[in-house]
Design a protein that fits this description.
mainly alpha, 2 strands, 197 residues, 4 helices, two-stranded antiparallel sheet
């Protein structure tokens, strides 16, 4: 036992505490990176689930317009003074196509014009035989539900995009930190090797 010499390591010139602390930090870096990735992935999954839910809501709102016979043989005219529009549909599929076009245009624009609302209300009133104010109320409810679902879908897609960008940044940061720690450890190891060689 007397042949073992630890000069320089025991006499106080070597800081064991900082080496142990750095080794623990190096060892825990992959775990921390994985925990950050897990949190980011959970955020992305949540945003994508919300996007799917909002897309389903939008689909449900638009399916009411696709029912068979809703617009078959419909013609309508406005009794409002100074109105310049009339509505007529030779078949249900023509009216559905027009209605879906109006709905998609409203989604793209972010609102539905009063003329389009009046046109759809006249179609609903003519098909169902209900009073014009009730038809207008139904069209307004449909419009609000459709625009709300579209806005939620856009917000969810934006949240998913932001979560994916954050995940990419955290991954790149974890890789950069790992590379820095590896280079520091290599430098410290090389220095120790040269001092004790």
């Amino acid at each position: 036992m007397s042949g073992i010499s630890l000069s320089g390591l025991i006499n106080g010139s070597f800081d064991w505490q900082s080496v142990v602390t750095e080794l623990i930090q190096i060892d825990s870096a992959p775990i921390t990176a994985l925990q950050n990735n897990e949190a980011t992935n959970n955020t992305q999954l949540s945003a994508l689930a919300q996007l799917g839910s909002d897309a389903t809501s939008l689909q449900t709102a638009s399916q009411a317009l696709q029912a068979d016979g809703v617009f078959d043989g419909v013609s309508a005219a406005s009794t409002t003074p100074n109105s310049t529009w009339t509505a007529a549909a030779a078949s249900g599929s023509d009216a559905r196509v027009e209605t879906l076009y109006i709905a998609y245009h409203a989604i793209a624009a972010g609102n539905m014009s009063d003329a389009d609302r009046g046109y759809l209300a006249a179609l609903v009133a003519a098909q169902t035989g209900i009073a014009a104010p009730e038809a207008q109320r139904r069209v307004d409810e449909f419009t609000e539900a459709t625009l709300s679902a579209a806005n939620k879908a856009k917000e969810s897609a934006d949240a998913a995009r932001k979560a994916a960008a954050q995940g990419s940044l955290y991954t790149a940061l974890a890789l950069l930190i790992g590379a820095f720690i590896a280079s520091v450890c290599a430098a410290v190891g090389g220095r120790l090797r040269d001092e004790h060689a």
